[in-house]
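Feature request, filed as a ticket because there's no other form

It would be nice if the structure record came with a short human-readable summary line next to the tokens. Right now we just get the raw output. Example of a typical job, pasted below so the devs can see what we mean:
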Amino acid sequence: MKEIILFIDKSNNKEVKVGIEIDGKKYLVEQPIDHRKAQAVLPIVEKLIKEHNLRLEDITKIEVNPGPGSFTGIRVGVTIANTLGFLLKVPVNALAVGEQVEPVYS
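Raw output as currently delivered:
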């Protein structure tokens, strides 16, 4: 079974980083963002999944940058990661399935 890890980093309020690692090979998208911070992550996830002929259900782990960083960005990134982890029943930041990552504010 392939190990597929989704990476989300919304710690910077000027850009979003979303990546996917498939059996050790990493693919990263860095995209500048405007005021629509919350709407940037999921379209990139969808794009990466489609580009690599995967399904969302193929993700085996999720890694998210919990902070510190942009207050809104951290909340958005962590919320998306926790929600996907819960729905897909996969660990987020190596926590047990169902446990949630807490944002880190400096």
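Something like this underneath would help us a lot:
DSSP finds two helices and four strands in the chain.
The beta strands are 4-9, 15-22, 25-32, 61-64.
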